[in-house]
Amino acid sequence: MKFPFPVVSVSGSRYECGVQHGEQVGELVKQNIEYYYGWWERNLKMSRSTVNERADTVIRVVKDYDAGLVEEMRGIADATGSHLEEIVSINSRYELAWAKPEQLMGGCTCVAALPGVTKSGNTLLAQNWDYRLGVKDTCIVLKAKVDDGPTAIMHTEAGIIGHKGLNSNGVGIVLNAMVSDMDRLGESVPFFLVCRKMLDSDRFSESVRAFLNARRSVSYNIMVAGEGVAVNLEAHPDDVSVIYLEDGVLAHTNHFIGDRAFKVKDNFLLSEPSSINRYSKALNMMRTVKGHSIDTLKMILTDHYDHPTSICYHPSPEHGADHEEETVSSVIMVPEKRLFMATHGPPCGNEYHTIPF
Fold first, then answer.
1. Closest to 36 measured CA to CA, from 322, 314, 346
2. Rounded Cα distance, 35 and 13, in Å
3. Strand (E) or helix (H) holding 77
4. Which has the closest alpha carbon to 245: 338, 96, 69, 111?
5. Cis ω on the peptide bond leading into residue 335 (within 30° of 0)?
6. According to DSSP H, which parts of 81-213 are helical?
7. pLDDT digits (tens, 9 = 90+) for 261-290
8. How far apart are CA 212 and CA 175, in angstroms?
9. Residue 86: which of 62, 50, 61 has the closest Cα?
């Protein structure tokens, strides 16, 4: 079966999974390292040595959270001839953006529907991941099984071990970038490693626990779904809003809507006001469409209202090369069916590919 992105299958111990990851897509990992270190130098004025020095702190914090995650990153480093600090740094690239918050960017629209409002009687979870065009061709689908844990399928970036995905126990997650005036470049478990620990969980409640127990100095959002259940977890450094579905549906973009965010100044909206129209359009369509299906989600995810900063996101002419952004991938999941689908590029012009467990 041919896919427009590499499908990387790994299994065994954490370290062995990392080694296999590095052996299969080592050149793409190195490309991502060079891309991000170059980007940080150009836009954040952070030298390679400065980034690597910060990685030592990240390693200590991650070891307190789950030392196995460090071993998986070490495996990638050893297999690719890279420094552990380089692999840790690209896995914490979300947090590094706070070295210069005005450089933050990224869209992303997430939706979910419960069985009572779907034609099939199954849960649906989906996302458009809007991000930098510079990483589009170094993305992979990672299929990882650590020891006797569940298999997790993720659409991610080569060298990054956690992202949006679904596991073989039917627990799926999608995500949004968030920004508040409380965010800082402090001691924080990297967002993408929180995602991985959630996907390595056997049960829905364990996945939520992994989210809630992560040390955090920045804001982010994860929508998590299982068989017949979904909830949105919207976090800033001081608290988490638990947002439940209304009328069987849920939508989230990149601004705060939770009840625990009343004291937060939402800085992301200053640079990304499209979060409002994307949220409004997605939620309205989720509420008004009768009988949701994979096809209705595709219709929502290809919506072009307010183009180019629409749900289906496209590059804006005024952005420079370092800030060109589009829907790099769109994913749809059905936890009950263990179905994971992903595109390579915007869903308006690219087909969804099913990755089997």
1. 322
2. 29
3. helix 48-80
4. 111
5. no
6. 84-91, 93-96, 191-199, 204-212
7. 888 898 778 878 999 999 999 999 999 999
8. 15
9. 50
pLDDT single digits (tens) 148-198: 999 999 999 999 999 999 999 999 999 999 999 999 989 999 999 999 999
The distance from CA 227 to its chain's CA centroid, rounded to whole angstroms, is 20
* Residue-wise DSSP of 230-280: EEEEEEETTEEEEE--BTTEEEE-SS--STT-TT---THHHH-THHHHHHH
User: Which candidate, 168, 164, 126, places its Cα nearest to that of 352?
Assistant: 126
**How far from each other are the two terminal CA atoms of the chain, in whole angstroms?**
13
Q: Label residue 1 by pLDDT band (50, 70, 90).
A: confident
Walk me through the domains of the chain, giving residue ranges and CATH numbers.
7-99 (1.10.10), 105-354 (3.60.60.10)
Kindly list the distances between the CA atom of residue 184 and the CA atoms of 96, 236, 251, 263, 271, in Å, as whole numbers in the listed order: 9, 11, 27, 16, 18
pLDDT tops 70 at residue 122: yes
Count other C-beta atoms under 10 Å from residue 169's C-beta. Answer: 21
CA of 171: how far to CAs of 109, 209, 258, 307, 315, in Å? 19, 13, 23, 33, 32
Q: Enter the tokens of residue 1.
A: 């079966």
pLDDT band, residue 100 (cuts 50/70/90) = low
Distance CA 244, CA 154 (A): 24
Q: Strand order of the sheet with strand 139-146?
A: 7-12, 139-146, 151-157, 164-167, 172-177, 220-226, 229-236, 239-243
264-294 burial by CB neighbour count: b if 16+ within 10 A, else e?
Answer: bebbbeeebebbebbbebbbebbeebeebbb
The dihedral sign for the CA sequence 338, 141, 215, 101: negative
Region of residue 224 (phi > 0: left; psi between -120 and 50: alpha; otherwise: beta):
beta
Nearest to 136 by CA among 355, 357, 342: 342
Amino acid at 200: D
pLDDT at 99: 58
Give dist(CA 221, CA 256) in Å, integer.
Answer: 9
